[in-house]
From TrEMBL:
Gene Ontology annotations for the cellular component aspect, listed alphabetically: cell outer membrane; type II protein secretion system complex; type III protein secretion system complex
InterPro entries: Bact_Secretion_Sys_Channel (IPR050810), NolW-like (IPR005644), NolW-like_sf (IPR038591), T2SS/T3SS_dom (IPR004846), T2SS_GspD_CS (IPR004845), T3SS_OM_pore_YscC (IPR003522)
The protein's name: Type 3 secretion system secretin
Ranges where the record places region Disordered: 246-326
Subunit and partners: The core secretion machinery of the T3SS is composed of approximately 20 different proteins, including cytoplasmic components, a base, an export apparatus and a needle. This subunit is part of the base, which anchors the injectisome in the bacterial cell envelope. Forms a stable homooligomeric complex.
Origin species: Trinickia caryophylli
Keyword Metal-binding among UniProt keywords: no
Highest taxon in the source lineage: Bacteria
Chain ranges of the NolW-like domain: 122-181, 191-357
Keywords tagged on the record: Cell outer membrane, Membrane, Protein transport, Signal, Translocation, Transport
Signal peptide extent: 1-37
Coiled coil region boundaries: none
Its job: Component of the type III secretion system (T3SS), also called injectisome, which is used to inject bacterial effector proteins into eukaryotic host cells. Forms a ring-shaped multimeric structure with an apparent central pore in the outer membrane.
HAMAP family xref list: Type_III_secretin
Length: 617
C-alpha cells in the first residue's frame, strides 16, 4: 500500500500553488503530464522509497542520486513527504509535482525543479529567421515540451514561450542564435569563380555568314536568376531602378496592387516637387469605398522588382540580397556578390557550364572532275561493302586498288595480253569479298584521273575546332570598287570563290560516337558579263545537315562549274588595221565543264568528359 502525506509549512504552500495555477493558466493550457519532449533517462524501472516527515528537497535529491541524474532544486520548493512508494521514477516525480505544485524540466543533462512562482513567459520576436525555422530548431534540440507548448505566429515571426525558467532561457538563447545565423547568411559576400573553358563575357561569332552573339556564363547566370543585378561592363542599370514602389493604401495592412498594366513607368518630372529621379515612391489617391481588398479574385501584382518590404512576410528581409553577377574579362572569371548560403548553388552551376569541350578535326577535299573524266568514272565502278567487292570497266584504265582489301592489287584481265605488268579493269564484272572505305577508294580513283588531267583536287584544307564551334575555310578572290560620294569616297569589296563552313557536334553513342555536321557551302566565280564596268558574280549555295559515325565521310556533289577562258593578243597598231588586222591577232579560247565534289571527313581528336549526374541546383 502506498501512502503519501504532505504537511505544508504555513499558508505559503497554498499561495505557491495558487500562483502556479494562475501563471500557467494565463500563459498556456497544460497538456497531459505524461507526454515528454525529451524523456528523462531513468536507469531503473521501479523506485522504492520510504519517507517519514522528510523534506521534499531531500526526497528529490535521493531520487536523482539513485538514478545518477544531476538535480538542481530551487529554494522555493518546500514541503514534507511521508509514505511508502513503489513505482516507476517517472510516476513518482509526477506524483510529487501534482502534490506540491512545483514544476520540473530536464534540459538533457540536469533535472531542474523550480517553485510554482518561478514560472516565466517570454515573447520572442524574429527579425531575420521565420517562425518555422524556430519550430524546427526547438524540435531538433528537444527544447519544446508538450506540457508547456510554444505559441508561434508565422505572419509576424513571433513566438511566445511559457514554462520553467530554464526552458524559457534556452528557448530565448536558441532564438537569438538562429536569428543571428540567418542574418549572417543574409549578409552578402563576394567570390571569384575563374573559368577554364567557357567565356565569362558575351562573344560575337560568325555562323553561316551572320554575326551571332553567344552569351557568356555571366549572361546565362543572370537569365537563371531574374532578380539578379545586371553588372555588365557597359554600366547598364537594373530594370527595377525606374519601377514604382507603391505604399500600402489598405488600412488593414494589405498592399494595394493595381489591376492594369504592371509595366514599370518613370515618374513624372516635378509632380511632387523636386527631381523625379529622387522620388521613386508615388503617392496615390484614396481608393473608392467600394474597393474591397479581400473580395473577389486578387488583382495581378506589381513586378517582383517593384515590390517593397511592406509586401514581404514579416520576420524575413524583403528581397534579402539579390545576387550581383559581374564578368571579369581580363581574368575570364565571374564575380558574384550574394548570400553565403547561395554560393554553393552558384559554384555547382558554374562548374556544370565550365566543361571541357571536345575537339574535332575536319579534313576537307574540294575535287573537280571534268565531263570526260566523269564519264570514264561512270564506266569504271568499284563497289565496296563489308562482304563483297564488285568492279566493272572497259579493260582500258588501270584498276584502283585499296590497301585494306583482300585483293589490293586487283584482278588479272585474261583478255589483256599486251599489258603484262599492269592490272587493268575487267571487261564486264568481277565479284570478290573485300573490306574497305568508300572515302579512300574515291580518292584513289580521282588520283588516277588527275594523272590524265581529267580531275584535280583543288584544295585539301584541314582544321581542328571545338565541339559546337563553327570552322570556316575560305578561298576567295576579292577586288575593291571605289564609290564616290558627295563629300567623300569609299571602297566596297566584291569577293568570289569557295567558302566552306562546318559546325560539328559530338553526340555520345554506343558503340561509337557520332558527329553531326551542319554544312554551308558557297561557291562563286566572276563571269564575263558586266553591269556597267563591274563583273557579275555567280554564286551557288548548299546547306545541309548530316549525322555520321566517326571514321565515315560525307560526300556532297550535284552541281557543275563552267570555266570559260578567252584571251586576245596582237601586234600593237597592226592588229587594229581593218580587214587585215586579223592577220596580226591571236585569239585563245578554252572552255571546260567541271563537276565539283566536296568530301568531308571529321575525326574526334578528344572527346568531352562525361556529363556528371545532374542534381538540384
Amino acid at each position: 500500500m502506498t501512502m503519501i502525506q504532505t504537511k505544508p509549512r504555513g499558508a505559503c504552500r497554498a499561495l505557491r500553488l495558487s500562483a502556479l495555477a494562475c501563471a500557467l493558466s494565463a500563459a498556456t493550457a497544460l497538456s497531459p503530464r505524461t507526454a515528454l519532449a525529451g524523456p528523462i533517462p531513468w536507469k531503473a524501472g521501479h523506485f522504492q522509497y520510504v519517507a517519514d516527515h522528510k523534506d521534499l528537497k531531500e526526497v528529490l535529491r535521493d531520487l536523482g542520486a539513485s538514478e545518477n541524474i544531476v538535480t538542481w532544486i530551487s529554494p522555493q520548493v518546500d514541503g514534507t513527504v511521508t509514505g511508502r512508494f513503489d513505482e516507476s521514477p517517472q510516476r513518482f516525480l509526477e506524483r510529487m509535482s501534482d502534490s506540491f505544485g512545483f514544476i520540473w524540466y530536464y534540459d538533457g543533462s540536469v533535472l531542474r525543479v523550480s517553485g510554482p512562482n518561478e514560472a516565466k513567459s517570454a515573447t520572442i520576436g524574429l527579425q531575420h529567421a521565420s517562425a518555422e525555422d524556430l519550430r524546427r530548431a526547438f524540435k531538433r534540440l528537444g527544447i519544446a515540451d508538450p506540457r508547456f507548448p510554444v505559441l508561434y505566429d508565422d505572419d509576424t515571426g513571433t513566438a511566445i514561450v511559457s514554462g520553467p525558467p530554464r526552458m524559457v532561457e534556452l528557448a530565448t538563447d536558441v532564438a537569438h542564435l538562429i536569428d543571428r545565423s540567418v542574418e549572417r547568411a543574409d549578409e552578402p559576400e563576394i567570390r571569384t569563380f575563374p573559368l577554364h573553358y567557357a567565356w565569362a563575357t558575351d562573344r560575337t561569332l560568325t555562323i553561316n555568314g551572320q554575326s551571332v552573339a553567344v552569351p557568356g556564363v555571366a549572361t546565362v547566370l543572370r537569365s537563371m536568376y531574374p532578380n539578379s543585378t545586371i553588372g555588365s561592363v557597359s554600366g547598364q542599370q537594373a530594370p527595377r531602378a525606374d519601377a514604382y514602389k507603391m505604399r500600402s493604401l489598405d488600412p488593414s495592412g494589405g498592399a494595394y496592387r493595381p489591376s492594369g498594366n504592371t509595366n514599370s513607368m518613370p515618374t513624372l518630372p516635378g509632380l511632387f516637387g523636386g527631381d523625379a529621379s529622387e522620388r521613386r515612391t508615388a503617392q496615390n489617391p484614396p481608393l473608392p469605398a467600394s474597393y474591397s481588398p479581400g473580395g473577389g479574385a486578387p488583382a495581378p501584382g506589381l513586378p517582383s522588382d517593384a515590390q517593397t518590404a511592406e509586401g514581404a512576410p514579416a520576420g524575413s528581409t524583403a528581397r534579402a540580397v539579390d545576387p550581383v553577377i559581374q564578368p571579369d574579362p581580363r581574368n575570364n572569371a565571374i564575380l558574384i556578390r550574394a548570400r553565403a548560403d547561395a554560393m554553393p548553388a552558384f559554384e555547382k552551376l558554374i562548374a556544370s557550364l565550365d566543361r571541357k569541350p571536345g575537339v574535332v578535326e575536319i579534313d576537307a577535299s574540294i575535287i573537280e572532275i571534268s565531263e570526260t573524266g566523269l564519264k570514264e568514272l561512270g564506266i569504271d565502278w568499284r563497289l565496296h561493302s563489308s562482304h563483297f567487292d564488285l568492279e566493272t570497266g572497259n579493260g582500258q584504265a588501270a584498276q584502283a586498288g585499296f590497301p585494306g582489301s583482300v585483293n589490293p592489287q586487283g584482278f588479272n584481265n585474261p583478255n589483256d595480253t599486251t599489258t603484262a605488268g599492269m592490272l587493268a579493269t575487267p571487261q564486264g564484272a568481277v565479284l570478290t569479298a573485300v573490306i574497305g572505305g568508300a572515302g579512300r577508294y574515291l580518292l584513289s580513283r580521282i588520283s588516277a584521273l588527275e594523272q590524265k588531267d581529267n580531275a584535280r583536287i583543288t584544295a585539301s584544307p584541314k582544321v581542328a575546332t571545338l565541339d559546337n564551334i563553327e570552322a570556316v575555310m575560305d578561298n576567295k578572290q576579292t577586288f575593291y570598287v571605289p564609290v564616290q560620294g558627295y563629300q567623300s569616297g569609299d571602297l566596297y569589296s566584291v569577293s568570289a570563290g569557295v567558302s566552306l563552313r562546318v559546325l560539328p557536334s559530338i553526340i555520345d553513342g554506343q558503340p561509337t560516337p557520332q558527329i553531326r555536321l551542319d554544312v554551308h557551302i558557297e561557291d562563286g566565280q566572276l563571269t564575263n558579263q558586266q553591269v556597267g564596268q563591274l563583273p557579275v558574280v555567280s554564286n551557288s549555295t548548299i546547306d545541309t545537315q548530316a549525322l555520321i559515325d566517326e571514321g565515315q565521310s560525307l560526300l556532297i556533289a550535284g552541281y557543275s562549274v563552267d570555266q570559260d577562258d578567252s584571251s586576245t593578243s596582237g601586234v600593237p597598231g597592226l592588229s587594229k588595221i581593218p580587214i587585215i588586222g586579223g592577220l596580226f591577232k591571236f585569239k585563245h579560247h578554252q572552255g571546260q565543264k567541271f563537276q565539283r565534289l566536296f568530301l568531308l571527313t571529321p575525326r574526334i581528336v578528344s572527346a568531352a568528359p562525361p556529363q556528371p549526374s545532374q542534381g538540384t541546383l
